[in-house]
Amino acid sequence: MHLLDWIMVSAYFVLMVVIGLWSHSRVNTVSDFFTAGGKMPWWLAGISHHMSGYSAVLFVAYAGVAYTDGITVYFWGMASIGIGVGIGSWLFASRWNRLRSKLGVASPLEYLAKRFNVPTQQALAWSGSLLKIFDIAAKWFAVATILNVFAGVPYTWGIIITGSITLIYCTVGGLWADALTDFGQFVIQAIAAIVMLWVVLDKLGGVSGLWTVWGDLPPAHLNPTTSKFTTVVLLVYVLVKTLEYNGGMWNLAQRYMAAPNTYEARRGARLSSILYLVWPLVMMFPMFAAPLLIPNISNPNNAYAIMTTTFLPPGLVGLVLAGIFSHTMAMVSSDANAISAVITRDMMPVLWKKARDFTESQGLLAARVSTVIFVVLTMAVATQAEKLGGVLGIVVLWVAALMGPISVPLLLGMLPAFRRSGSRAALISWAGGLVAYAIAYYGYNATLAVTVSTPILVSLALFIGLGYLMPERKASTDEIIDTIDRDDDLTPRKSQDGTTVPA
After folding, report:
1. Is residue 359 packed enough to be buried (19+ CB in 10 Å), middle (13-18) or exposed (0-12)?
2. Which of 495, 54, 23, 81 is nearest to 258 (CA)?
3. Distance between CA atoms of 180 and 190, rounded to whole angstroms?
4. Beta bridge pairs of residue 501
């Protein structure tokens, strides 16, 4: 890369660290660190939710699928998320917010000990944390791949550089730092994406390329589904993403919890949903056009990076690279904060009695130490990502398939319709989903559709079925569900001038 590119990338890293250090002054309590004290405005919560949901995987693995298969990757990879978050805006966002405002919950798993029992909470905490280590490792490897193609930086050093910068600002600033850097990253990424789109359209003959390009691509590239990414995969992904992006991926639940009230939480979710449906089309158009501009490349996963280094002038290459960094750093920092919340609030008090009586300062120190340990561990695993199935293998076959069994008890446990499903249903559905995945993937070497769909469908059937066949309804369960099902005085009202304000 040119010196100008390195200046752009370095300036981006410095900006992220500065935001993290500034956010440090806003963090005085554990609640500030994990849920921003419930003071995050809806637009910031929505943008942060959006930015925390995808990473450099989009520019590596998904770009590779766009190169070989076309628009199908948008439908199962992005539109499914937009639909899922839209569903969650009225089904889950307000309930997550009430868990914080009414029950004082600071961790996404904290309520499970009372809703089910401590063993259920611990099973989900440990298995979810382990899965997240591999998920984030895939993200580090993806961004290291980009840095390797752009500048020839060895994979290990790429992981160390991006991981270390992220570690600094998310450790000192907590959720406020995550959200504010998410916003800064969104602006940088938007500029980078528009620059890339403009250059690609210029190569295609102008703005008319937006509609003429489709006639030049192979006809199969225009199909929403393919023999591998079938209609079944698409429908299952909508179900998986509805659970994953509304709390199954714990960091995204925190965005709903951080909003001042339920009205603001729902607005933030709707903003994120719209962004997922619209904005990926801007970012992915160059990926769809790539077969016409750089045909016959040996590794499709490098398509976006090759176009960037080939078509953009010095300075702009660094801008696009910073934009790609922004996605991974946004997701990883928010994941690290969520995992730290689970470790500090849910796991440590069970393992270590002294942790139950931590002061605010001790709790903050424990949160920051656990964040450091978690991120360093993900970086270590990232160096072995190729041996674990590569980026797409980890993200699709591991995370998408295993997120369901972890998400089903966590999210359905909040809904009144499933109040009869207790700890027995939760644990059996979790274990049954994991066993179903092992049988499908390792026992029968099943197709992608079967591998992704089997665990979540088995978990759903067990959780719902056992609730009806062997109900475990309790007064404490009813109390929790009824509490988070009502707005009470948190419902916004109209002021005299007609504007909407919190109650």
Report:
1. exposed
2. 23
3. 15
4. 493
Buried b (16+ CB within 10 A) or exposed e, 301-322: bbbbbbbbbebbeeebbbbbbb
CA distances from 141 to 134, 167, 387 (A): 10, 16, 12
DSSP string, 345-410: IIIHHHH-GGGGG--HHHHHHHHHHHHHHHHHHHHHHHTTGGGGTHHHIIIIIIIIHHHHHHHHHH
- Give yes or no for a contact between 486 and 494, defined as CB atoms under 8 angstroms apart: no
**What's the one-letter identity of residue 292?**
L
This prediction has a pTM of: 0.79
- Quick one: DSSP state of residue 472? -
What Cα–Cα distance (Å) separates residue 260 from each residue in 41, 252, 501? 7, 16, 11
Angle at 283 between CA 329 and CA 52, to 5 degrees: 30
- The alpha carbons of the chain give a radius of gyration, in whole angstroms, of 22
208 exposed, middle or buried (CB, 10 Å; 0-12, 13-18, 19+)? exposed
- Per-residue pLDDT tens digits for 223-241: 998 887 888 888 888 888 8
- Taking alpha carbons only, the member of 279, 285, 278 closest to residue 196 is 285
CA distance 345 to 60: 35
How far apart, in Å, are the Cα atoms of 419 and each of 99, 288, 339, 415, 448? 16, 45, 27, 7, 33
Average pLDDT, the chain: 81
The predicted structure's pLDDT at residue 56:
66
Domains of the chain: 3-390 (1.20.1730.10)
Distance CA 128, CA 27 (A): 26
Residue 218 backbone zone (phi > 0: left; psi -120 to 50: alpha; other: beta): beta
How far is residue 202 from each of residues 188, 295, 316, 495, measured CA to CA in Å?
21, 17, 15, 50
What would the mean pLDDT of 338-365 be, rounded to a whole number? 74
